[in-house]
Amino acid sequence: MEKFYTTTAIDYVNGAPHIGHAYEKILTDVLFRHFSKRADCAYMLTGTDEHGIKIQKTSASMNINPKEFCDMNAQKFIDSWKLLDINYSQFIRTTDEKHKKIVQKIFKKLLDKGDIYKHSYTGLYCSGCEAFLSEKDLDENGFCPVHKKKPEVVSEENYFFKLTKYKEAIIKHIKQNPDFIVPSFRANEVLNQLENIEDISVSRAKTNVSWGIDVLDDPTQVIYVWIDALSNYITAIGYDPDGSSDLFKKLWSADVQVIGKDILKFHSIYWIAILMALDLPLPKHILAHGWITIDEAKMSKSLGNVISPKSIMEAFNMTEPDALRYYMATAAPCGKDGNYSDNDFKEKVNAHLANSMGNLLNRTLSMLVKYFDGEIKQEFIKKSPLFDEALKTIKEVEHHFDYFEVAEAAQKITELVDKVNKYVTDAAPWSLAKEGKMIECGEVLYTVLELMCVISSLIYPYCPNIAGKMAKQLKYDINTKYDDIKLDNIKIGKLISKEEITPVFLRLDSELADKANKVK
Ligand code: MSP
């Protein structure tokens, strides 16, 4: 695989990051780290969406200049992703000068082409969606079904994008590429939405919305959020209608664009039409993930159950994010909703990461020290049938990742860990040692350690710190590409001393879990 380019949605900065935002960034980072082990070049983009009426109103109500407000809140997202070890290649902010300039050029290109035109319009505007809604979009009370608010009636002269011109081409693309929208069950939903599409407003009168990118040569209008926001995926990596960068030529089109199911319409219809209008190749896949609920309830400010990733880490006294990353990445099957609960979090990570995986390595290394002074002897090196199991698991994990099934892939890793644990229980190296069968005992330990190298590689995208600690004790190169894993990593000679053995993951404290302080 030559390259892998993945993107996340860019978050609105009118609020603080919560674990719904975090879920998406973790999922994408896991994909990114996995494909880094398969592609020559992998690139991940994330960022913040900073224009629009909501930011304008919130910053005004706080008496702060909107840019200062954005700076302050964008930093909260940057800090949270650092805390979660999101290893993105680039963080774009839509207030970046470079982005703004290219968005203006994109707008002009579409205007010159005749795909954008000016039109007087009266519509129902939902500031929550930052979108005009049609009557059909509203619920039985005439409210926006997502934001539960009555949209405002807005009359303006705006620029419109000829979405309808691309309707048939988009339908054809979705039908001809059943794996374009992931999971595929969402494709029908999009095809239904396509039936009713109209041209969309892509600018707002400056008198109503001033916090946005000016339309070139028309100071009365600002470019309305979606053309601005969606373009980030190409402006960040150097798209320019007058000549794009080498990075853009190398990376575009995206291999997978990760977004929440609530904004699938914007990505699988609006974004695709914009790309078609710009004569650019389309992303290979759009992955629409589900929603994260808290204790089975929707997260919302009014319910007071919005949890930040930082508050979870503080409540559990966590110094590394691996457990939370693992829990979130495995919270739901691909595309389905998932749930966060303190108790489930604690139980799952203690069972999987501490009891099964961490203990397995710890016990094995301790036995190696106890019986052989930490040394691997020539006679221990023997191919085990479990090696084939490990190679099979690598293929299965890769296969799931090819379909962006991050939770399903983790299940395969868990199954391999369970098999190795069963192997140790059945082979009982402690009994072999007692019986003086030292070579057999050494063979078992060697087999487990070789398997642990594979497990550390496979768990790395989810738990980079734990995997790093495993690899360090195994003297294994955690950067090994999956294709290069040969199960010949454990070398003859001294592997480890007693002092070097460290637990890779400490169980989460149950008392802390019970007291978990949900900081809003
Ligand atoms: N700014 C737009 C996206 C523009 S992309 C060109 C936006 N921002 S958002 O802050 O509202 O949401 C950012 C992402 O977080 C979206 O993909 C959204 O689906 C996701 N999530 C927000 N709340 C969520 C949950 N409770 N659970 C999972 N993801 C959720 O939309």
Give the topology.
Blueprint: E1 3-8, E2 11-12, H1 19-36, E3 41-49, H2 53-61, H3 66-83, E4 90-93, H4 97-113, E5 116-126, E6 131-133, E7 152-161, H5 167-176, E8 181-182, H6 187-195, E9 200-201, E10 203-205, E11 213-215, E12 218-223, H7 225-230, H8 232-235, H9 246-251, E13 256-260, H10 264-277, E14 286-289, E15 292-294, E16 297-298, H11 309-315, H12 322-329, E17 338-340, H13 342-372, E18 375-376, H14 385-402, H15 406-427, H16 429-434, H17 438-459, H18 464-474, E19 493-494, H19 510-515
Parallel strand pairs: 1-3, 1-13, 2-3, 3-4, 8-14, 13-14, 15-17
Antiparallel strand pairs: 5-6, 5-7, 7-9, 10-12, 11-12, 15-16, 18-19
Helix pairs in contact: 5-6, 12-13, 13-15, 13-17, 14-15, 14-17, 15-17, 17-18
5'-O-[(L-methionyl)-sulphamoyl]adenosine is lined by residues 9-12, 20-21, 23-24, 49, 229-230, 232, 259-260, 262-263, 291-292, 299.
Structure description:
With 520 residues, this protein is an alpha/beta fold. The protein folds into 2 domains: 3-298, 3-Layer(aba) Sandwich (Rossmann fold); 322-500, Orthogonal Bundle (Isoleucyl-tRNA Synthetase, Domain 1). Helix content is 47%, strand content 16%. The protein has helices at 19-36, 53-61, 66-83, 97-113, 167-176, 187-195, 225-230, 232-235, 246-251, 264-277, 309-315, 322-329, 342-372, 385-402, 406-427, 429-434, 438-459, 464-474, 510-515; strands at 3-8, 11-12, 41-49, 90-93, 116-126, 131-133, 152-161, 181-182, 200-201, 203-205, 213-215, 218-223, 256-260, 286-289, 292-294, 297-298, 338-340, 375-376, 493-494. The strands form 5 sheets. Strands 1, 2, 3, 4, 8, 13 and 14 form a 7-stranded parallel sheet that branches. A hairpin with a 4-residue loop joins strand 5 and strand 6. Helix 15 (406-427) packs antiparallel against helix 17. It is elongated, with a radius of gyration of 26 Å. The two termini are 42 Å apart. Bound molecules: 5'-O-[(L-methionyl)-sulphamoyl]adenosine (MSP). 5'-O-[(L-methionyl)-sulphamoyl]adenosine (MSP) binds at residues 9-12, 20-21, 23-24, 49, 229-230, 232, 259-260, 262-263, 291-292, 299. 5'-O-[(L-methionyl)-sulphamoyl]adenosine binds at residues 9-12, 20-21, 23-24, 49, 229-230, 232, 259-260, 262-263, 291-292, 299.
